[in-house]
Amino acid sequence: GCLKNNVIVALHDYYSKRIGMTVSINLRGAGNSQGRTSWTGIPEQEDVRTILDSISNRTLELHSSMTDRLKTTAKKLSRFQDNSKCYDDVDKQVIGEGDTVLVPLPLIKNVLLCGYSYGSVIVSGISPKLYPSLYIDYTLISFPYSVLIFLTVHKKAYYLEQVQNLVTRSLSFYRNNHQTPAIVTPLSSARASTSSLKQLPSSSSQQQQQQRQARGSSSVSLPAALNTTSTTTTNNSNSNPLGVAAMGSLKPGLTSTSSFHTQPPPRVLMIAGTNDNFTSIQNYKLWWYELLTNARKEVGIDECQTNDGDDDDDDDDDDDDDDDVNKSNTTTSHNTPSDDIGSGGYDYYSLENLDKIFENDKLPIPENNKCDGCFDTFIATDEDHMWFNRETKIIEAIDTWW
């Protein structure tokens, strides 16, 4: 793949018209990019990090061989940086050093790293701890889960651990008693996806105000594939806040001095089709539920809420939370297995049991979930790994979630 891939082109075109700046890059060895694939993904992470470094340092370093195009880019970026000024003399805003041109960037806090296929593997390996000044969210599209061993020599366990760390890191901040912060929504069609996405729980206006204050006003989206796309925006009074996450309660013992920093943690969105060419939807579900189960155990959540049955089995210590439960939906809880889970959780969750857990393609979750978006998964019915002429489903899922 390369930055001409249909998924990347669709994401790039969509966000470049709606957010300030969109950047797509080929990883080394992809498309016209020099170098060669490393088969470990570590050097490719450095390719993506060059963009994040530029955002963090507020300076975009570009090669001077495309002078005219760079001046046009600099002019646009300068206008974006300060809407009250129009820089006609771009040369005064661009400082050249040798074979490079340094373009000043505005202050950016929110970043969306979006990876498609092999690109989703690469971006998952970039820890948000490397960029304490940025609030990074992740969208992993058609993650090549079942063939990961062939794409990353001796690094499969490393990347799976990185994804697990992202989910655990998110849940540790958004934890709220026994609520399960994960959503799986079927996207059978563009129209169906829109209606189903609108049913996602939303925060109150007061919560949204707190979220905006916590996240700041500037946002960047970095959609990626075997290449990477970066998008930058500054919210105005008429736009919805991007990259906003609901604030939950910290697990006791997780203080500001722990390994989890006190900034809003990364949120993770998984997108996959039911007819993926490399990973079955059942294996995706197994993996997603394993991620959620392991994260819940790590942060001390021992039970799982469902939307079926009654609350006869609820623990007595949940009584204080009764007022927070949506009375229109009765809930019950069941113990999440601990020692019963075999390697990767597959021994315990047979495919038959998994279909019951994912009844109606939705993980058990209370209607009043206060952990909006910290770990979401979207399933597109009848879609394969390529997404030809179905890219709008991906865009709708990301746009609504982010």
Could you characterize the architecture of this molecule?
The chain has 402 residues and is an alpha/beta fold. It folds into two domains: 6-58 and 110-173 and 184-301 and 372-401, Rossmann fold (3-Layer(aba) Sandwich); 59-104, no CATH class. The protein has helices spanning 6-16, 42-57, 67-81, 118-124, 148-151, 156-174, 190-197, 205-215, 281-299, 351-357, 391-401; strands at 21-26, 59-63, 95-97, 100-104, 110-116, 135-141, 183-186, 218-223, 227-234, 268-273, 303-306, 332-335, 375-380. The protein is globular and about 60 Å long.
Task: Throw out a few tags for this protein.
402 residues; alpha/beta; Rossmann fold; 8-stranded mixed sheet; 32% helix; AB_hydrolase_fold
**Gap between N and C termini, in Å?**
25 Å
What is the subunit organization of this protein? Answer: single chain
Strand fraction: 15-25%
Low-confidence stretches: 83-93, 176-205, 224-261, 303-351, 364-371
Q: What is the annotated CATH architecture of the largest domain?
A: 3-Layer(aba) Sandwich
Tally the helices: what do you get? Answer: 11
Q: What value does the average pLDDT take? A: 65
